[in-house]
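Incident log, structure service

09:12 report received: a user says their structure output differs between two submissions of the same chain.
09:20 pulled the input from the user's history:
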Amino acid sequence: MANFSNFRALEWAQRNRWIWSLLGVVLLWLALSLVTSRFSLQSLSGVAISASFLALAGLGQMFVITAGRGNIDLSIPNVLTLSAYMSTILIKGHDTNLWMGVLVAIAIGLAVGVVNAVLVLALRIPAIIATLATGYILATASLFANRALVSYGVSPTLKWLTTARLGALPVIAIIAVVAVVAASLVLGKLVYGRALSAVGQNSRAAYLAGLRVTRIVAATFVISSLLAAIDGLLLQAYVGGAFLGMGAPYLLQSLGAVVLGGSLIMGGASTALGTLFGCVLLVLIVATMQVAGLPSGMQDIVQGLVVIFVLSLAGGVRGRGTNRARPTPAQKSA
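09:34 re-ran on a clean worker, output below:
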């Protein structure tokens, strides 16, 4: 009976890979609460805000990774930065100009997403190279935007969305949760999400089954860029403007949150809920290292070690679950 219960637990963990990032969040939060008095429910609200901005970028990265082929979007931080600059310049701190900022953010997201898709799918450039090159171009555009930027205020509506609270919950955290729920529905309930998982598992088989593989994969790059652009629009309101390098932390953290959350790095299976927990876990790790006074270089090393540990732990459980689930020849004949 004990062996059967263990098998059921392993099988459940294999289907719900987000449990590992959630477990990491709980353990790290308990440890921080015990060793320092700086972590409380109020500080948890600050963690939620930081994780919410990361979650929007992470969800876009998740869709790209789900498509398989080793696809990764490295243009996310530059899309975010350029969107922040352009929306700040156009909105000028007035709600009457908010529609222009929203439109330019959407336009940047759509344009960059289409360009990335063309480079990867039409020109067959590896995604990691194509999106990195696109990012360099966007970084140059941000330099020109920086010259055109003067000291503007922040739209009151955007300021409310990013700093206000409904009860104890930050509004931006509610927005992030809504985005996670929407992504979960797309992946689990909609035809597109199931087709995307099929493409990520085996693109050749998906093509032979009649799926429009090119369109499905192209849509992931558009989704990623759109979410990054919207993230930039919101982030500039939260920090009170735009600055060069504001998207830099989202380069590897968006990828780390996805894999920590339980998504398979080679594609085919992703979890939006796990991505959210992965974002919270990464923010907590950074907060822990800042409390410990670690230098930035050591912080990068620790983040890398944590990612390796969590992936190894989850991978080992998946392997044991798979081995136990596979019947022996004798069991088949029986």
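09:41 both user submissions now match this output. Likely a transient worker issue. Closing.
09:42 reviewer note: The longest helix spans residues 296-325. The chain has a mean pLDDT of 85.
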